[in-house]
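hey team, just a heads up i'm posting the complex here instead of the shared drive bc the drive is being weird again. everything in one block, sequence lines first with there labels, then the predicted structure for the whole assembly after. its two chains so it's a bit long, scroll down
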Amino acid sequence: MGDGIPHHRRIFLKQVATAVGAVPLALGASVVAGGAAAVVTGDAAAAATAGASGQDTVPIAHAWLFFDGNESRAAEAAVARLIPADDAGPGAKEAGVAVFIDRQLASAWGSGDHLYRHAPFLAGTPQQGYQLAFTPAEMFRLGFAKLDEAARKAHGAAFADLTPEQQDALLGEAEHGKLDFGELPSTVFFGALLDATMEGFFSDPIYGGNRDKIGWKLVGFPGVHASYANDIERHGVAWTRPPASIADAASGG
Amino acid sequence: MSKTMPAVDVVLVGGGWTGSVIGKELAANGQRVVVLERGQPRWTSPDFQAPGVRDELKYTRRNELHQNAATETYTFRNRVDETALPMRRWQFAYPANHLGGAGVHWSGAYYRWDPVEFKLRSHYTQRYGARIFEDGITAQDWPLTYDELEPFYDRFDRLVGASGFAGNLKGVIQPGGNPFEPWRSQPYPNPPMRVPHAPALFGEAAAKLGYHPYIQPSALSTRPYVNSEGLHMNECVYCGFCSNFGCEQFAKASPQVCILPVALKLPTFELRTNAHVLRVELDKDRKSARGVTYVDAAGVETFQPAQIVILCAFAINNTRLLLLSGIGRPYDPATGEGVVGRNYTHQTSSGVSLFFDESVKINPFMAAGAVAVTMDDFCSDNFDHGPLGFVGGGYIQIQVVSGAPIGNRPTPPGTPAWGSAWKKAVKRYYNHSIPITITGSAMPVRGGYLSLDPTYKDAWGQPLLRITYDFPDNDIKLSAFLTDKGTGIGRAMRGITLAQGNPRTKPYGVNAYQSSHINGGAAMGADPATSVVNRYAQCWDVPNVFVTGAALFPQNSCYNPTGTIGALSYWTADAIKRDYLKAPGRLIAS
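-- predicted structure starts here --
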């Protein structure tokens, strides 16, 4: 267990969290993962978490809309490997990408509002494109369960509790379709997870990811600046102003 | 439940460019006109205003302005012996679904087609011999010439506030322009776009190699402009949220900016949104249309009687309406007989990935849908095809369309797709990489066609349109040739560290975006045996039904379609006003 809390203790905390509902709990973020009822709010929880984990980054105060506790832990662990925190800067977990994915899966998009879902669902050629019945929400629910299953089978622990090296190896196997996820080809799940991670890292922060414009700062994308008419012909000059989000611009920032 | 609306003179199916242009022209001529638009009304203000519009996730990734695949999509297969399967989400093109149609979320790349495009088969046959055409290619001449269409191109230029530098004024080549440009009767109404760093470097390298680079024309206004309808456009500010977005600035031409406000003031013009047309209704003899049936916003099936029906839906959706309505004989690839659905084409696009040292700062976010330096040396028949063994051509360019990083995060070949190595590479190359874009023509083939799917249906229970298609070898050869030329230019650019060409290969697939230029199925022609409509876009079999847009293209040019679609709209509107209305219900004489 990555956080050193015994398994029976974790279950107890989860039950407490569920029972007390929205009462703020000063617990580590990885513990408070018992579904939508477990809510971390306010600076006290954040400060307590930061202190407890010894990390510099402040965890994100939010409730999970879609993920249950196992899924949210797996999602945070997976995105942290897809875009890791390293010497190039903070990664996807710090950018709130798991929160982004959670909210997207709870949205109309997650329910497949733009997906043609009429039967028959037949296996096609690669050039016929995506042909599975899964909505994004269904795919991620199954995919994270299967990822945990594969982790337990290989290493006897949930994906989130593996070492980074073990996590990378499993993700690499999923990427190349080498894990058995039943009806869901693991390579399809990996592709969807990577797509969603990139979306969460680089989309406007309004959706819950790209926190502090971490993704935009990594590459130097300025966000929603109003006009480049006076800059576009200044060749070879780097743009150095900090990025602006939709919310920044809407509030006059 | 169903209802019938009061009869009108003209009903137009679709409120994009062609429906807006023809609807306004006929309403101003005194006809009672109704435009039925299936999507929602969306306007520059408030719908496309910043900062909310500058949202890559919403507009590009979540298809905010695109046709909703959940309710209506296409099915696809490469060959007739395969089972077509539905495109369950958009990957290969972005059909539109809202007022203004694709004329809102387009890029504004603005071209006229080369005179050779209009007499493609006879021109190539004359110059190279008939054997230049690979077996099975069904390319054919148009029933009109560039010279006939030029005044209508000119009218559309002035509607959209076209920006560019004329390369050929009345046959006289102009220094500084595109020497391969077809002749123009007047200069562009607005000066060309500004030139960013990467296109400038492309132009420098292309010129060094003896080519003829120029600034791509656009339908993005480059200065405050009052258009031919008296409507105001502003100067493009290169905000970089252009393709897939509505333009907040009133700079990118759209039906909303350029024509609908004037049309809506005419007492004879009515726009009805959330009106999804199911089919054209024919008389018992099936030689005349009575009007159209649509589903209104509340889901009520509604009959709109009209004297003239004009199909103005997105590209190949017009072909589908013809098939759903039983207008014209469906094409049969086994016999080669029939016409509706024949000659489907897309666009033979490819690219060259370029990676630069850090002295070259692309600033990819300083962008617009159509800001590019381009060269036409290998377009159309501007080069000797004799030794090459293919027909058609393509333009080669660097355009700076968008820096929005969900979609634009280039890394060199061999970079892992994730992890620290990916992160390091994307940080290094985001501002130092941009592709050369190559846009090639597309030839139709005997086995490539559009038909109604036997299995899959839309949200209203109607068969989806089925696409059966694979590239002809001709287009694969073309793509290899063009991509090789583009790679040569990339390698000659200052600061280049790697140029890797990615030519188009078989098989054709709908699992990757290629362009939204999907064409054909209702070819315009001189012979009813090989075309659906005559030279005025009038159905041979049902003369009070007209078809507009890219469904009319017998094959695709390398040049973007909207300029030609706009010109053809004015051409058809003029023919209706001048000739058809004098003898309604009859084919207009050629």
